[in-house]
Amino acid sequence: METRSYEKYFRQNRLPHLWCPGCGNGIAMKAIVQAIEHKEGWTQDNTIIVSGIGCSSRASGYMDFDTLHTAHGRAIPFATGIKMANPELNVVVITGDGDCTAIGGNHFIHGCRRNVDLTVILFNNNIYGMTGGQASPMTPLGKKATTAPYGSIDRPFDACKLAEAAGATYVARSTAFHVQHLVKMIEDGMDCKGFSFIEAMVQCPTAYGRRNKIGEPAKMMAWMRDNAVMKNAWDKLPDDKKTAEKFPIGLFYKAETETYDSAYHRIQEMAGVTA
Amino acid sequence: MSARLMQGNEAVAEGAIAAGVRFFGGYPITPSTEIAEMMAKLLPKVGGTFIQMEDEIASMGVILGASLAGKKVLTASSGPGISLKQELIGYASATEIPAVIVNVQRVGPSTGQPTAPSQGDVMQARWGTHGDHSIIAISPWSVREAFDLTIKSVNYAERFRVPVILLMDEIVGHLRENVELPAENEIEIYPRRAPKISRAEGYEPYAPDEDLVPNIANFGEGYHVHVTGLIHDETGFPVGSPKVTEDSIRRMHEKIERAADEIIEVQQEFMDDAEFAVVAFGGTARTAYEAVLNARAKGLKVGFVRLITIWPFADKIIAQLAKKVRGILVAELNYGQLVGEVQRAANGACLVKLCRKYDMTIFEPEEILASIENLVAEVK
Amino acid sequence: MRKQLRLSGSGGQGVITAAIILAEAAVAEGKQAVQSQSYGPEARGGASKSEVIIDDKQIFHPHVKNPDFVLAMTQKAADKYFSDLNPEGILILDDDLVPNSPDFKNIIRVPITKLAVEKVGKTLFANIVALGVLAKITKLVDFETIKKSVANRVPPATVEQNMLALQIGFDSVE
């Protein structure tokens, strides 16, 4: 029988959550606490959850840690402040595709560049859900949104490639369908000292699926199952098989580089720290 | 400690370190940059952290995060940068995160005259962010006072858990003059507020103490605090009710209003026999003071009133002043901002006139003296 | 005893640094001093002006009016900044960089930049040569105090050259 030992990580009196029936955010949130549960030394007292604004970012309120629901796009600067003020803390950022790559895009690339020791999980639902379905920088070409009623012509970001190019030292992707894999990707990201970025693809049946006639939540998850290709297989896939629908999941990049707090510690020593 | 030549911006950095600031996030902007440069040099020496962020917004965000993790924090900028910070100044106000924001004012709007003095951000300091909020803004007129008021700003931020604006101007920021700094044991420090009861005893992070200020636990201390910019009740969690909304906004105002008499500081000179008064603040007050001396030398009974606290506004003191004198001259280095507040507080009890300048140069004493003479002539 | 000085030139000539050192020396002798400056956006080449007021009483208004001494290191600065000089004041000009003397009674011309190049080796030291000139002419601060202030302010590796520059400036005028 399943133990549901992860339930202690939730503020039971704050549930049920405000997400729509069939939303993938709950799956991703649960994956985060399961990853934390697996991590030795990560407790509810020394782990901080920081989020931005949007559907994804409501997760912080349900999680029983010190939690910070910041302003739109600003989770990474706040998280940077927490980590640099107290490097002993484990800092997890929950963000969305609009939060992270539009209004928070500059903070995102500079967090990667500095290699601040954070674990950033982007809940990618391809849309601004909380405001009712506007196009985000991760809405695929041609897909409809309330602000792209004839289909989006803005080329979408690949947030994983962006993170890698900007200097993140752990970059991975998984989906709400591949739950065990998602937990593993997050857990490995938490193991990595440095800026870890995990894109969690989540279905938004209400604001995205419905408008684009993709169907019920189960059908959206089946689409993830059918189109996600594990990184190893993806690398061997001939180009003509890499259709527009298909996408790779798994670990894309990992490197060992000095973290920002460790580098700053050297600065303190060079300055002759006395306190 | 012996006297030394020090720049106003340098005094802010020294004051911040003396006040216990151990985290600074910033972005370069004239004429405040020297503060960031000094903090970059000084903070690592005392085990603190300096970080140059990617923009002004991030500079504000990073200090708020650090403040929640237990550090005393400060950032510095000038008009355009302060505009960018406003979103998170509102956030700090709503979430009651202690933080000091230094604005070394320059000519605006926009890039304006980046190296030239102005006092055009008086209203920005009060109303720059969105929504109903309370704020404290104080303004130094000397290098020594830049040091002292930086410490006071940090203490107010910690005591009231409110963003505090240190409203500098380029005149004081870039001025060098002789100062003697106080010894460490002469400096009063307000410590970070701490929970008085445990979680088991029913701790609620946003429950107000007797002074209406909550004792919010730092992150990492085991209290599992939730901080959100949504309107929240005493638990810290969002509540969509009219009562909680009203209570929350009222308390944010009342915690400052209650202590207003203590916060509001005004320097008054030559007031015993004064029939007229010059009201000024910041760097302009130095010139106004000379103008008052010159007026006195000419036999005019003029007093000098310097607002050290800009916000909350010195309503009571100005109302009393207006009843005492026959005319008030407000000298400010802008098109006219503070004068509106003085007129409101004076409430018609005496004539209130504006002496303004906005040509990127500072007042000369003769200019303010001429305005004093015009005021005297107009009343008589 | 209030004395007012204006040091002017173009950005990069070091007039602001010279003014700061002079004010520091005055403070070291227990005097009151304020130093202010105005400059354009250019790091090099723009107009640059720095003012120092020295007094034994507290100084409020920080700007100089009717200076007792004006140093001009460019023609443009000389033309612009001499006009409100105290009639009994002194205008000090860089002999080569200010070919045309403004119409003023008391002018002292010193080949400041030329001395820096020929005797110290670099135009970079012109401001310290000028400071030596000012120390001699203004007599506001003891020369030994100025020496100490220069030594405290300049990079350690350049102290010797700066001391030479200061002395050359000091000796260049009667």
Structural description of this entry:
The complex is a heterotrimer of chains A (275), B (380) and C (174). Chain A is α/β, with parallel strands linked by helices. Chain A has one domain (5-229, 238-270): 3-Layer(aba) Sandwich (Rossmann fold), CATH 3.40.50. In chain A, 36% of the residues lie in helices and 18% in strands. Chain A is built from eleven helices and ten strands. Chain A starts with 24 loop residues before the first helix and ends in a 5-residue tail after the last helix. With 380 residues, chain B is α/β, with parallel strands linked by helices. Chain B has two domains: 4-186, Thiamin diphosphate (ThDP)-binding fold, Pyr/PP domains (Rossmann fold, 3-Layer(aba) Sandwich); 266-379, Rossmann fold. Chain B is built from 13 helices and 16 strands. In chain B, helix 12 (338-346) links the parallel strand 15 (327-332) and strand 16. In chain B, helix 3 runs parallel beside helix 4 (79-95) and helix 10 (282-297) crosses helix 13 (365-379). Chain B is globular and about 70 Å long. The model of chain B has no long low-confidence stretch (mean pLDDT 97). The two termini of chain C are 23 Å apart. The radius of gyration of chain C is 15 Å and the shape is globular. Chain C is built from six helices and six strands; from the N terminus they run E-H-E-E-E-H-E-E-H-H-H-H. In chain C, helix 3 (112-120) crosses helix 6 (159-171). Chain C is an alpha/beta fold and 174 residues long. Chain C has a single domain (3-171), classed as 3-Layer(aba) Sandwich (Pyruvate-ferredoxin Oxidoreductase, domain 3), CATH 3.40.920.10. The chains are: A alpha/beta (275), B alpha/beta (380), C alpha/beta (174). Chains in contact: A-B, B-C. Chains A and B meet through strand 2, helix 3, helix 5 and helix 11 of A and strand 2, helix 3, helix 4 and strand 10 of B.
Q: How are the elements arranged and paired?
A:
The complex is a heterotrimer of chains A (275), B (380) and C (174).
Chain A: H1 25-38, E1 47-51, H2 59-62, E2 66-69, H3 75-85, E3 90-96, H4 97-103, H5 105-114, E4 119-124, E5 127-128, E6 134-135, H6 159-166, E7 170-175, H7 179-191, E8 196-201, H8 205-209, H9 217-227, E9 228-230, H10 231-236, E10 247-254, H11 260-270
Parallel strand pairs in A: 1-2, 1-3, 3-4, 4-8, 7-8, 9-10
Antiparallel strand pairs in A: 5-6, 7-10
Helix pairs in contact in A: 1-7, 4-5, 5-6
Chain B: E1 4-7, H1 8-19, E2 21-26, H2 33-42, E3 49-52, H3 56-68, E4 72-77, H4 79-95, E5 99-107, E6 113-117, H5 122-127, E7 136-138, H6 143-160, E8 163-169, H7 170-174, E9 176-179, E10 226-228, H8 242-257, H9 260-263, E11 266-269, E12 276-280, H10 282-297, E13 302-307, E14 309-311, H11 315-324, E15 327-332, H12 338-346, E16 351-356, H13 365-379
Helix pairs in contact in B: 1-2, 1-6, 3-4, 10-13, 11-12
Chain C: E1 3-10, H1 15-28, E2 32-39, E3 47-55, E4 69-72, H2 75-81, E5 90-94, E6 107-110, H3 112-120, H4 126-138, H5 143-153, H6 159-171
Parallel strand pairs in C: 1-4, 4-5, 5-6
Antiparallel strand pairs in C: 1-3, 2-3
Helix pairs in contact in C: 1-4, 1-5, 3-4, 3-6, 4-6
